[in-house]
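Translate sequence into structure tokens.
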Amino acid sequence: MRTTAMLVDHDVLIDAGTGVGDLTLAELSQIDHIFLTHSHLDHTASIPFLVDTVGAMRSKPVIVHALPETIEVLREHIFNWKVWPDFTVIPDPEHPFLAYAPIQQGETVSVKRRRFMALPANHTVPAIGYAVSGEAGATLVFTGDTTNNDALWPIVNRMRDLRFLIIETAFCNREEGLARASKHLCPQMLAEELVKLERDAEIFITHLKPGEIELTMQEIEEDAGEFRPRMLQNGQVFEL
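Result follows.
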């Protein structure tokens, strides 16, 4: 089972779930930046293994960009010498394998002419999404894990170059109560959100629960079919 990880060109990850395991050692060694949406394990699980595997092969640290609250979780609960070594001081503090770069909602980070803007998300822990803009002038929005999120749409609707929207739908409609409690979306809630989108964009669905994928996509077609959403595929490529 793969969890959230998106590779931007060859050197940037958005989230680092178990999908990172699909990359070769050579590909892993080229990753310079990881932009995290939040601290949950399905979005961070591969960071310890990635840094441990390629740290000695690299001349500079892997930089993790995240909310300060997310960084604190990584420091306290993962890279704490109990669960995993603290690679911000390995092999020594002057030459670490890992470095943190705090980012705030609304902030934009540029990496080699690509822009990563932190967007508001509404989840059970501090969380953000990202708008990724490339050299060709197009923008992709990834909502990250979120439930109903009124703060997001005015920002998205100002993006004249919006081309792709990747949005989660974690539960089927019969589990709407669980979706609301865990701050995710179900198809009915997805439809409520997409009505707020005023830009033309290709819409892709992610974070589907294994075992409920066909049912959830069927319900998405019934509840939000007018927006022509499609399921995000493993290895899908977007041109920005």
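Note: The first helix runs from residue 25 to 29.
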